[in-house]
């Protein structure tokens, strides 16, 4: 299968490739070159209504399949994705810009969710609870919630869809997916492979659009949508919560992050540097869990900054298919402008760039990997999600200071710290206010682990055995009249 054979330009509704009802299209461009990759069906509210109707019709037949049947179809899906992982990675790199090796890793990571939840489909166990009456029995059943709407971001256009669609299908729920405007091609390719795997018509529907709010409003307010799963900004998450409140929808919200990355003076500094590079510069810093604020204890601050700068200087910036590239472009001009504003604000408030601090000569959407030292504690770069390859490094005094700084945020998605003191490891892991903690590790994502945040970073968990629960409802059944 070639690149062109996984490039789809139409919406996918009820198992068919269809044009938008309006006939409109929108352009998907390669952020590294600015070239148009394809013109895609531009769905509107009517298309979204059709997709929800198709999902509703598919719900009962899909839910009524045995768990083993759903498992086998999903396993087929996983096998097809893995067979064509390189074509999917090339497509992802072209529409999103991340280096091919990183894109290939994302495809395999996304596929792992399909495999995991294929297996979990057969483990949706209920309970028999000791009864309060001798002639009665209490049963607790788990049943699929119903039609799911998923709204996904551009930074992981394959994995974020797999992470939502896989548990939905495993639970017995059909899904309507609105991919990000910048990166709809990966979603459409996954739908193509799901159809080849035997996923029935209407169980997966994809509605690409350039009018996210119009389609999003349909999906988040529709009476026939039982659950909404969203990954994106906290501001949009608030809108989805308000919309979902009208019909009391079940919600999963994976929202903004402002991850602290703490290095204590008893840490292995070289390991901490490696962790910082891996966490901060993956996908050019365009991840919700990447290190956003680096706090380093005063006694090792200069040594850390020096070693960190030396390592970052080795990172190569360029197009997705260039040799040894680690950092690709940012997604669009708006993203570049925000990074420039945050860096400018930090420099005005006394910070200095040990490396980078400017755009790259590779193109208008490229930005040099940047380290800012001596950053003022009131700089915007410490309060706002950067979503770019910029690492602000701040000095702290002691453990209490580090914890206070780490928790001084409305967000609580991910946090990282490095220490070889076992007592400190326990204290800090328990004290950091976030849903994910990496201890002496800069990358934490794994299908076996629950992914999600607290505070204004969201609701619910994705992945792991806990991730299926968000797509299931509990039903209590009291069976009486059983006296002998």
UniProtKB/TrEMBL annotation:
Residues 17-477 form the Aldehyde dehydrogenase domain. One of its GO terms (biological process) is gamma-aminobutyric acid catabolic process. GO terms for cellular component: cytosol. PROSITE patterns: ALDEHYDE_DEHYDR_CYS (PS00070), ALDEHYDE_DEHYDR_GLU (PS00687). Gene3D superfamilies: Aldehyde Dehydrogenase, Chain A, domain 1, Aldehyde Dehydrogenase, Chain A, domain 2. The active site is at residue 254. Belongs to the aldehyde dehydrogenase family. This is Retinal dehydrogenase. It comes from Maritalea myrionectae.
